[in-house]
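Worked example 2:
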Amino acid sequence: MALTFENKMKVRDYECDSQGVVNNAIYLHYFEATRHELMEKCGLRLRDLTEANIIPVVRNANISYRSSLRGSEEFVCTIRIVRDGLRYFFHQQIIRIPDNTLCASAVIEVVCLIEGKVAKPDMFDSAFAGYLEWKDKR
């Protein structure tokens, strides 16, 4: 069974709209920040990848909003990764602490451009090995 990555975060007041809840666009930032934390934990730095002309690109993002976060609330953003062909699907959730309320869930589809073309990034498979589930047959 693949591992689930968790990243604990806290809402900053400037991320809230005039109603006092987190603006919907900010959830994308939380999801992205968590993907970057996972990459770094797995030894992949975006700066190093881009210098090598290896660019992970979000191809599609599907977000379901469930319950609003408010200023200063703490939450955990989680990731499960499913690989299907050349695509990685990051299944992510934002769960408020301490009541474990699901605030948002998303499936973020990512492909890798190597030298400008969608390609199979072997280094991601090995780096994410403990977190990766396979949908397709290798």
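The helical segments are 24-41, 46-51, 122-127. Residues 24-41 form the longest helix (18 residues).
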